[in-house]
Design goal:
The chain has six helices and two strands; from the N terminus they run H-H-E-H-H-H-E-H. It is mainly α. The protein has a single domain, classed as EF-hand (Recoverin, domain 1). Strands 1-2 form a two-stranded antiparallel ribbon. The structure holds calcium ion (2 copies). The site of one calcium ion has 7 residues, from strand 1.
């Protein structure tokens, strides 16, 4: 029974990876509402990954790890405080890719 413990991190990684690929596929195949919900989860995951110091906002340096975000940093930073909140970051979902 104690042998289950070493499997946990690997199982969790598999779930996370599967979730990420499902989210990627869902963007083109799922209904819009489900797609946007999954996209939001993916955005939140990306935000949390990029938030290196876990203060709940992205500095310009942290956003630099996400080129698509870094390019739009000034547009996304609507309150011009030099950081992207989760809310500001999520605005990329509403921005046409063009
Ligand atoms: Ca941060
Ligand atoms: Ca801001």
């Amino acid at each position: 029974m104690t042998q289950r413990i070493p499997f946990l991190p690997a199982a969790l990684s598999a779930v996370v990876l599967a979730g990420a690929s499902v989210a990627a596929c869902a963007q083109t195949q799922a209904p819009a509402s489900e797609s946007s919900a999954r996209a939001r989860l993916a955005v939140e995951a990306a935000f949390n990954r990029a938030d290196a110091n876990n203060d709940g906002k992205l500095s310009r340096d942290e956003a630099g790890h996400l080129p698509a975000i870094a390019l739009k940093f000034d547009d996304l930073d609507t309150n011009k405080d030099g950081f992207l909140s989760m809310e500001e970051f999520s605005a990329v979902l509403n921005t046409p890719a063009a």
